[in-house]
Amino acid sequence: MDHSEAVEQMAAERYLLDELTPDAREAFEAHLFDCPDCALDLRAGAAFVEEAKVQLPGLTAAAPAPTPSRPREPKIKREWWLSWLQPAFAAPVFATLLLVVGYQNLVTFPALRLQPASRGFFPGLRCAGPRGEAR
Question: Do 27 and 1 form a contact (C-beta atoms < 8 A)?
Fold first, then answer.
């Protein structure tokens, strides 16, 4: 085994995890004596594993899993057509409608009542009677 094969197969990590086949293990051990880079990787990995064994039990015992103070309520998904019922939109719309209805009742309808019935809605328009004669 040469250095490029060892790096490609991640042999140092697999050696520490005992995942190499017996033949690959022997080939890596033979390569390990000739390659200072792989020896350094193996020493660093071994130091990491030893320190992890010391530090991890203390970390998991010191910090218990956080418990939520109250369960979260799922958000209710609103339909898009119900969005007009929200106060930010509904209040101005209802105010505008109130102004339109007020204008019609106070200005438009009294003006229409004052017009003579014969003139109708369109004073300049001559309407034909039922037999075509002008009124």
Answer: yes
pTM, to two decimals: 0.43
What token pair was written down for 65? Answer: 């899993």
Beta strands in 72-129 (DSSP E): none
Question: What is the tens place of the pLDDT at every residue in 106-119?
Answer: 988 777 777 765 55
Find all residues with CB under 8 Å of 20, minimum gap 6, and list them: 11, 14, 28
Beta carbons of 12 and 42 less than 8 angstroms apart: yes
Q: What is the CA radius of gyration of the chain?
A: 45
**SS3 at position 134:** strand
Cβ(8)–Cβ(38) below 8 Å: no
Structure tokens at 32: 């390990």
**What one-character DSSP code corresponds to residue 103?**
H
pLDDT of residue 96: 94
